[in-house]
Amino acid sequence: MNRLGLRDSVLILTLVPTVVIGLLLGGYFTINRYLELDEFLIEQGNTIIEPLSIALENPLANNDQGALERIARHIHNKHSPLIKSVAIFDSNDELVLASNLHREFARLTQVPTLDNKTSSKTTREGDFLVIYHGILDPNAPSHQPFKTNGIVMVQFNRQVAVVEQQKAVLISAAVILLAIGFAVVISIRLSRMITQPLSRLVQATQEVAHGKEADNIQKPMQGELEQLRQGLLHINQHMAEEKDEMQRHIDQATADYQETLEQYEMQNIQLNIAKRDALAANQVKSDFLAKMSHELRTPLNGVIGFARQLYKTPLNKNQKDYLDTIELSANSLLTIISDILDFSKLEAGAMELESIQFQIRDAVNEVLTLLAPGAHEKNLELSIHVNPNVPDHLVGDPTRFRQILTNLVSNAIKFTEHGEVNIDISSRLLNDERVSLLISVKDTGVGIAMDKQDTLFTPFAQADSSITRKFGGTGLGLIITKHLVEAMGGRITLNSAPGKGTCFTFNAVFKVPEHHFELDLPCASLVNKRVLYFEQNEHSYMATSSILAAWGVHLTGCRTIEELEQAASNAFNYDICVLGDPGGAESMARMKQLIAIARQCSDYLYLLLNTVSHNMREALVGSGADGCLSKPINHRKFCEMLAAPFRLDHPTIHTHDHHTTRLPLKALVVDDNDANLKLICALLEEQVESLDTAHNGAQAVEVCKSHRYDLIFMDIQMPIMDGITACKLILESSLNEDTPIIAVTAHALDGEKEQLKHVGFASYLTKPLDEDMLSDALLHYAPNDKLARERVSAKPPLSEPPFISDSLNWELALQRAGGKEDLAQEMLNMLLLSIPETLNLIEEAMAKGDHERLLSIIHKFHGACCYTGVPKLKKLAELIETAMKEKASINDIEPELLELQDELSNLMADAGLEKSSSS
After folding, report:
1. What HEC string does 822-865 produce?
2. Distance from chain centroid for Cα 539
3. What is the dihedral of CA 174, 177, 179, 182, to 10 degrees?
4. Phi and psi based region of residue 472 (left: phi greater than 0; alpha: psi -120 to 50; beta: remaining)
């Protein structure tokens, strides 16, 4: 029933009982009627046969055949068609008379025995009812009053009763069908009386559920449906009221929300205004810092420069001490200014890292060489261990890496009074192109409490306020270090406890260069040499032993004097003996004692000292040592010192042949800067057979129409025709359409590099160029040339710089000039002579606000800086050019321009030249 609808349920509940009751009553009355018809026929037959038997008594007794026949026919005809036949039998059951003989009459002649002579007997024969009745004898004696004289048989036709029975069945069926029809009509009307109101109620419920007003249930209903309708109307009315109430709340909430939004908008406007003010204030702060740096650096550079000039004059001891104090104070102030500027750049997100190739071990040695005197003054053991698996050549920013290491190591030395400072460097190869360096700086200093460690990496913070008073410093070193480490793809951590020292650990990700020309150390001369090494400090012993083992020596290590004496008592002599300074107040006496022990068993004796004192070195050499080096060990100097006597014994092995065979190549160099053109030609003249030059793109195009070249070096920014246009025209010519053209630019942004390759340049080189870069390019474009593959560059011997200046790196200048001192001097002179004109042009362009003119001047000057060993000037020019290419205004880069002018003026002052314009 649950699956049926209400209408179907009403129909079923109405019709099923009606049908069942009708069938039962119809069946009952039909059966009763059927039985009543048979009894009625028997009763009627008895009613006929009893008078007939009385009427036949006399005729049968008198054997009156005619009377018998008349009576029989009369009865037959009177009751036809009910009577089928009338037969009279005598006392012998012989047929006397029959009113109708038919085919089945023979079966009727078998008269049954009557139980009672005066009663009748009824039998059924198919569709007929046969009644037998005895005929009394009227002449019977009195003592036999019921003596029969014969039997009368009447055959009744049952068809009449059957027809009546069928009529009764049909009437019953009709009555039943009529009742069912009536019930159907009643049930349909009843279902409609229920379902129609229910449908309206359901529809009204759906309308109410959808928030609409129910309009179709306004008419009254009957009975319980009326109660349901009233309830639904009440619900509808209640929901309408609730809807109105909810709408009022929504309107109120919307109004409140609108008011809140307006407040938020006002707050956002205020926040935006505050943000702009903060950014403006930050910009003002940055400008102020940059200008103050400019204003402070100028007098500081003057102080430092004239202090250095005073060093060249005769001085007494007190005057020299005063000058040392002046220079130390000025350098400290300069360091503080640099830290503040770096922090300002980091806050503004303007700190950019270089990506140049450098040697990691040389970079570390430079830092430790600078910081070692501070460690020696406090009698600290400063030791560096570089794992042998660390690649020597990496691509990254060596300046910032040295800055990180300088901050950490200088802090370790500053806060350590006794003990040692150890640096460990290892590496992990991330993939074929990147390597991660892990560097730890560990000291035995005062340590840092756990609750103070978090404050170390916040600006202007120290672990303790007393630290600033005792040790000095701005509190910016570690926050700058942290930002630089993160910029290199790493992170910095520390582990420290009061009284147990501190260990700073950081990692930095560098690229692995595709090609490099490695300058081999003369360690081949040390292979299989017997080396005796004494060192009491565990970390220094491990670091130096690792270096010696990598060079293939037979090492005998000693940690105590007893072990040294035992090793010295061997029957053979050692080729080399290396003694490490144990340090302490009695260092000189103990070193002499060690020299006395080792001198007898070694051919060459070298000392590793915790001092830079020249007098102590001379004294120890006079005591029997062959040479001295200051700790920590510079691996390059250490190897050259140990190998020096063996290289002199075997000059054919170690003397390098500087003569190189030129490659059978013809090259064209295009550059509008005479200094750049001169340097590139000087570097290429020794490497290729034929060389042509052009001063602009138009000249290059004309030359390429009549000459075919194996390689073309093309500057980008040139007058008349730039390098990009010239490259397109040259590639369209028939002679040089397959010639590789290499772009030579002072600075190229990432987008510009892709554009250069898209235009048609085979590759690009970034100034400053040197022999290694050019050799690499020649090797790439002459891969089948045996001479190119076998070429090895040699490091030129260093010479004294022409003058002392913080802006001049003479070693770099010689490297850029291919080791040619006269060429490096000439390139530097050309730069110095161009400075006054450059300063005037910069000032004019700044005064006029000519962005394009200023960019052209800076680009040309940047190119000149690339070959003259002035990395600070090159970096400033590169920073300005990058900012201008990124559409920075002249006002935005004014601090850098002023700093550039100061550096140029300082360089001229250091060179002893007059400035043509003031900064």
Report:
1. HHHHHHHHHHHHHHHHHHHHHHHHHHHCCHHHHHHHHHHHHHHH
2. 41
3. -120
4. left
Q: In which element (H, E) is residue 395 found?
A: strand 393-396
Q: Is the pLDDT of residue 471 over 60?
A: no
DSSP labels, 674-701: HHHHHHHHHHHHTTEEEEEEESSHHHHH
Give buried/exposed letters for 563-580 (b at 16+ CB in 10 A, else e).
ebeebbeeeeebbbbbbb
Q: Which residue has the tokens 């009643």?
A: 186
pLDDT digits (tens, 9 = 90+) for 397-455: 888 898 899 889 988 998 898 889 999 999 998 888 899 999 999 999 888 888 777 77
Q: Can you read off the two tokens belonging to residue 178?
A: 């009529």
DSSP 442: E
pLDDT in tens, 135-180: 887 777 766 666 777 888 888 777 766 677 677 778 877 877 887 7
Whole-angstrom Cα distance, residue 71 to residue 68?
Answer: 5
432: Cα separation from own chain's centroid: 22
Distance CA 907, CA 914 (A): 11
Q: Are 727 and 714 in contact (CB under 8 A)?
A: yes
Of 504, 402, 399, 398, nearest to 457 (Cα)?
Answer: 504
Beta strands in 651-808 (DSSP E): 663-670, 688-694, 711-715, 741-745, 763-766
Please give the Cα distance from 335 to 438 (Å, whole number): 26
Q: Is 462 left (phi over 0), alpha (psi -120 to 50) or beta?
A: beta
Q: Tell me the pLDDT of the chain averaged across its residues.
A: 78
The pLDDT of residue 686 is 76
User: Where do the DSSP E strands lie in 18-147?
Assistant: 83-90, 95-98, 120-125, 128-136
pLDDT confidence of residue 139: 76
| DSSP β-bridge partners for residue 504 | 441, 494
Q: What does the angle CA 624 – CA 522 – CA 811 come to, to the nearest 5 degrees?
A: 95
Measuring CA to CA, how many Å separate 573 from each of 5, 556, 593, 599, 604?
117, 12, 18, 10, 10
For the chain, the straight-line distance linking the first and the last C-alpha, in angstroms and rounded, comes to 105
**Helix or strand or coil: residue 793?**
coil
* pTM of the predicted protein model: 0.45
pLDDT given at position 578: 94
Burial of 299 (0-12, 13-18, 19+ CB in 10 A): exposed
Helix (H) or strand (E) holding 757: helix 750-759
- The CA–CA distances, whole Å, from 182 to 174, 186, 233, 248, 778 equal 12, 6, 36, 57, 115
C-alpha closest to that of 873 among 918, 839, 825, 915: 839
Of 624, 632, 660, 638, residue with least CA distance to 788? 660
3-state secondary structure of 440: strand
The pair of structure tokens assigned to 826 is: 């000439």
Using CA atoms, how far apart are residues 235 and 241, in angstroms rounded to an integer? 10
- What is the C-alpha to C-alpha distance for residues 827 and 835, in angstroms, rounded to an integer? 13
- CA neighbor of 360 nearest in space, from 405, 391, 382: 391
CB of 691 closer than 8 Å to CB of 718: no
Tens digit of pLDDT for each residue in 872-890?
888 888 888 888 887 888 8
Query: Which of 384, 419, 404 lies closest to 502 in space, CA to CA?
Result: 419
| Angle at 78 (CA atoms; ends 74, 82), nearest 5 degrees | 120
For the stretch 169-209, pLDDT in tens is 788 778 778 877 887 787 777 777 777 777 777 777 777 77
β-bridge pairing 381-386 and 420-429? parallel
Please name the residues in contact with 546: beta carbons below 8 A apart, sequence gap of 6 or more: 385, 387, 388
